[in-house]
Amino acid sequence: MSSPTQAADPLFLRAMLESSPDNIYFKDTKSRFLRINWALARYFGLKDPSEAIGKTDFDFHSPEKAEVRFQDERTIMETGTPIIDKIEREAHKDGSTSWVITSKSPLCDEEGNLIGTFGISRDITLLKEMEDALAHERNLLRTVVDNVPDLIFAKDLDGHYTLSNLPHTHFLGKNSPDEVYGKTLFDILPPGAAELAHADDMMVWQTRQPMFNKLESPGQGRWLSTSKIPIFDHKGEVKGLVAISRDITSQQRAHQELEKINSELQRSREELMSALEELRSLQLQLIEAEKMKLVGRLAAGVAHEVKNPLAIIRMGLEYLKSQTFGDKIIPSVLEEIAGAVQRADSVVGELLDFSAPKKMDRVPVDVNRLICNALLLARGEIAAGKIAVDSELAPDLPLVPLDAMKIEQVLVNVLTNAAHAMEEGGRLTVRSSTHQVTGIGENVSSYSDHFRLGARVVTIEVLDNGPGVPEALIGKVFEPFFTTKPTGKGTGLGLTVTKTIVDLHGGTIEMKNRPEGGACVTIVFNADTQ
Amino acid sequence: MKKILIVDDETGFTRLMKLTLEKAGDYEVIEENDGVRAWETARKVRPDVILMDIVMPKVDGGDAAARIQKDPVLAGIPIIFLTAIVSKKEAVPGGLIGGFPFLSKPVSLDELIACLKKHLPH
């Protein structure tokens, strides 16, 4: 007696045959269709499944294909063994092709006698196409991964390699990626190198953040730039990492070479600058020497022509001084004349000094000491003018190669000049300072062009609070015979001599009016000059 | 009385020197205005000291002084240069030019007498 479910078998079978999208058939021992379902009938182009009964595959397929199926069924019936999931490509009359997966089994009656075969097949064309596309993409990706020159690899959370492209495989000294897969850093690299790389892996896993372009030196003079990116699963859990290392040995070497060349260039530039400075100084000295030769000749001529008449006047005065005059005014007149002779003689004397050959005896000196000496030498002029003196001297000045005597003369001239500018008393400020010429910001000044960038300079400033110099004349203060002092008070050569001496030291001197009143003389020397 | 030979092409200068010095002290001043004749005059008057200008036409003071110095007859007579072309500041150590003492023009009487006293044989 059959169970209720067994009784329902025909119903189940019919439902399956009518609605299954897969092709289902039953055949007799001669491979003739006993029954097919609706899906197969539509596949064969039949209006009703019954139309297939008694027909074979030779009626619906090409002879070659029909023969293959016929032989398969022979084998099943002879061996009793089913064919499971056989994938076949089917060519259609319209030229199109499709893919099917088929399982076939022996068909037996209730007593177990073989009465034929049955099978079910499914159209897997879409799946097959997707699989092909996936395989193509995988292949493409693999080709790219293996052929880029960069080292590409991936690891799981246990540190096992799950990907290693050919350059990475070869870098590890292996021939095939299969020799790398499943291994860890510690299986392949020496302990020290393995620990370093592993520390990076751990950091990426723990921080969940990528690491980009880390410079690594794996030895043998090679340099790698490595980036490691964490891999997340769909739940956002870290599952491993993928890494790419670029061999930048050649760039690194080029960079080092470039740095070397750059440093050599810098050194050459400094040497050139130093040579240029020396040449400039020499040129200045040559020009100065040539000029001075001419001026010297002129000065000697002038001195001779002026001093001789002065000598006669002077001797005449000496004679007259020994005489007695009725007019009491005469001796004072003679004194006036003697004063005038003295002044004229001073002018000629300074002219001779100005044109005399200048010999520099430059040794490293403390500028503050020169300032103190000059203040002592000029104390008479300063005291006469009831002038208060402020010294603001920087304690850490570098020594500067200067001719101490000549620079003292310069400072005395400038201090005296400032004292004379404050006839009714005032305040004289002397400052010294040092800094490096950078040509940036407040460092930009009229002298920053004069010294090379980076040079250490020492600056001396002499400030007075006198009336200053009329703006129209301030550019001429260093010109010969320029003076704002009353006739007889100055020769107009003092500041010219001063500038000549500063120039010969390769320094700069300038005079400016101060916004708050008075004038400021700034002298700058290069402390680096040899 | 000390004899002073003054050699200078400026006649006005030599004249005033003579007037002033002779009035100022016990000096006899002989004038000479030519470098060529300076040696001849020196030989003739045998001065106690010679004041010599440097820049003069024909023979300058340097050559004239050298000739006088080399003359055995005149040997030992001090020569003092009086020059207009050297400033006081340029005075070399010892105040010498070519080994001779010098005075820079214009010169004061005090300066001149001090220098003469220093170099005149006592």
Secondary structure elements and their pairing?
The complex is a heterodimer of chains A (530) and B (122).
Chain A: H1 4-7, H2 9-19, E1 23-28, E2 33-36, H3 38-44, H4 63-79, E3 83-91, E4 97-108, E5 114-123, H5 125-147, E6 151-156, E7 161-164, H6 166-171, H7 185-188, H8 191-207, E8 211-219, E9 222-232, E10 238-247, H9 249-321, H10 330-355, E11 363-365, H11 367-377, H12 379-384, E12 387-393, E13 400-402, H13 404-421, E14 426-436, E15 456-463, H14 494-504, E16 508-513, E17 519-526
Parallel strand pairs in A: 12-14
Antiparallel strand pairs in A: 1-2, 1-5, 3-4, 4-5, 6-7, 6-10, 8-9, 9-10, 11-13, 14-15, 15-17, 16-17
Helix pairs in contact in A: 9-10, 11-13, 13-14
Chain B: E1 2-7, H1 11-24, E2 27-32, H2 35-45, E3 49-53, H3 61-70, E4 79-83, E5 96-97, E6 100-104, H4 109-119
Parallel strand pairs in B: 1-2, 1-3, 3-4, 4-6
Antiparallel strand pairs in B: 5-6
Helix pairs in contact in B: 2-3
Folded structure, characterized:
The complex is a heterodimer of chains A (about 525) and B (about 120). With about 525 residues, chain A is an alpha+beta fold. Chain A is built from 14 helices and 17 strands. Chain A folds into four domains: about 5-125, Beta-Lactamase, CATH 3.30.450.20; about 150-245, 2-Layer Sandwich (Beta-Lactamase); about 265-355, Helix Hairpins (Orthogonal Bundle); about 360-525, Heat Shock Protein 90. Chain A starts with a helix and ends with a strand. The mean pLDDT of chain A is about 85. Chain B is an alpha/beta fold. The longest helix of chain B is centred in the N-terminal third of the chain and has 14 residues, at about 10-25. Chain B has a six-stranded mixed sheet, sandwiched between helices. In chain B, strand 3 (about 50-55), helix 3 (about 60-70) and strand 4 (about 80-85) form a beta-alpha-beta unit. Classes of the chains: A alpha+beta (about 525), B alpha/beta (about 120). At the A-B interface, helix 9 and helix 10 of A face helix 1 of B.
